[in-house]
Each structure stands twice: as C-alpha cells, then as structure tokens.
Design goal:
mainly alpha; about 0% strand
Length: about 160
C-alpha cells in the first residue's frame, strides 16, 4: 500500500507541476496577453503548495478529534490559499478568454501572437477548473437535497 500511495503522490504532484513548467518554459511566448504564462506559473506553484500543506501530518486533527494550534493555523492557511486560487482563476479567465481565438503565428507582422501550446494548455486547464467546480457544486447540492429528503422522511 505504501508503494501505491507514494506512486499516486508522485503522479499527483507531477500533474500539479505542469502549469508551473508550462508557464516557465513559455514565459516570453505570449505577447498578446503576457499574463497568461504568469497565470499558469502561479497556479502551479500555489497548487503544489496547497497539496503539500494538506499532506503534512501536523495539519491533521488529533486522535481525540480536537484541533491543535498548529492544525488550526494550517486550516487558516489552507483557506487563504484556496481563496487566493479562486480569485486567481477568475483573473486568469479574463486573461485567457479575452483573446480567444489568439493568433498562433508569430511571423505575421503587426499582430501579437500567443504560443499555441501555452494558450491551449491555459484554456483547457481553466475550462476544466470551471467544469470541476460546477460538478462539485452540483454534488454538494445533491447531498443537501438528499439530506433534506432523508430528514423529512425520518420525521
């Protein structure tokens, strides 16, 4: 089980590093909207930070079910980073979707371009983020509805 857990953790962190790598590699390759590589870079760094923050053993509750001061501090940081990432996603959406469809050809004079790999990666990671957020909200609503129905049926 430990081997599977560490393999999963490695692949998970590797996937979280992709935006950082993409943003760093193509940092100067989108003059049309120069914030797109920065958006990807920051997303990757903060997602890895958030993943590592939640994996730390000191961030967990005690065996008695209570929280230590350290675990409360980690919960606050987790909330702050999550809020920042949500706001950053909105900013990134403005940057990414505002230039759709971009010019991918850098040889055309007078028209700013954006690297195709960078733009499509940013477009689809942002779109997938919204899809996952929508599914999470839908799942949460379904759980609330089921809880209400179960609570009414129980009475």
């Amino acid at each position: 089980p430990v081997v599977y857990s560490s393999a999963f953790t490695f692949h998970y962190l590797s996937a979280l590093m992709l935006p950082t790598i993409t943003g760093a590699v193509y940092l100067q390759d989108c003059p049309r909207q120069h914030y797109i590589p920065v958006y990807e870079l920051v997303c990757g760094v903060f997602n890895v930070f958030l993943a590592l923050l939640t994996c730390l053993p000191c961030a967990r509750e005690t065996e008695e079910g209570g929280q230590t001061t350290l675990s409360r501090t980690f919960n606050v940081w987790n909330s702050l980073v999550s809020t920042f990432l949500f706001c950053w996603m909105i900013c990134g959406s403005v940057w990414v979707y505002s230039i759709y469809p971009p010019n991918y050809n850098q040889t055309v004079a007078g028209d700013a371009y954006c690297n195709k790999t960078l733009y499509q990666f940013a477009f689809w990671t942002t779109t997938m983020g919204y899809i996952l957020l929508g599914l999470a909200l839908l799942f949460g609503c379904c759980v609330c509805i089921c809880a209400c129905i179960y609570g009414i049926a129980k009475d």
